[in-house]
Please model this.
Amino acid sequence: MKTPLRVAAVALCAVLALTGCQKSADAAFGEKVRGYLLEHPEVIEEAIVALNAKKQAAANDNVKAALAAHRKQLEADPRDFVANPGGKITVVEFFDYRCGYCRASAPEVLRIIKANPDVRFVFKEFPIFGELSDTAAKVALTPAGKAKGLALYAALMGQDKLDEESFDRHLSELGMNPAAARAAGEAPAIAKQLADVRDLAKALNIEGTPAFIIGDHMVPGADMAAVQAAITGAKAAAAKSAG
Model:
């Protein structure tokens, strides 16, 4: 990561390079600019901050446009497992059962669901950590897996290191036959659903897990404070609109 001083130096060089391209009649002006910037380097830093803010605003606009374009796929795909299906505010999570950050955020996810019956929570199976991740996602999307819902999510996310043995053990403890569940997970319809989620993630530029979406806001990573803040904001906006 560049330090502010180094960034300022790079910016100063760019300015000086530009002034060097001017006609000789502008040389005096160029020297004045150079002298001012050397005397007040904080101006360059202020300009960089403003430029970064402008870029971030443009990026936010792009995110909002992408989310709006894919709203139905995000929030209303009937194939997804949804907690609190009658809720008015929707949170979408892209996750992987073998993702450490997903496991770290899982207790807060479960707390939010329990404490906020008015919040729909849509689970997007997005396996990116290998074969067992794929298997777990497939099993979770079977009718038996969806019937276990949050119990299956909590069990798999509560495992420090999910492996083949612990995965089958959790299925058995939940009353599922591991072999039958694995076989059911190989249904073509489930493969199609996972492919659709991958395409959706690509369209939204989601490359890692977890990623949370609340309305027009995307929260990458396990920043659960930001997720809660977005939920609170969405509720406030909904209340204001209803009033």
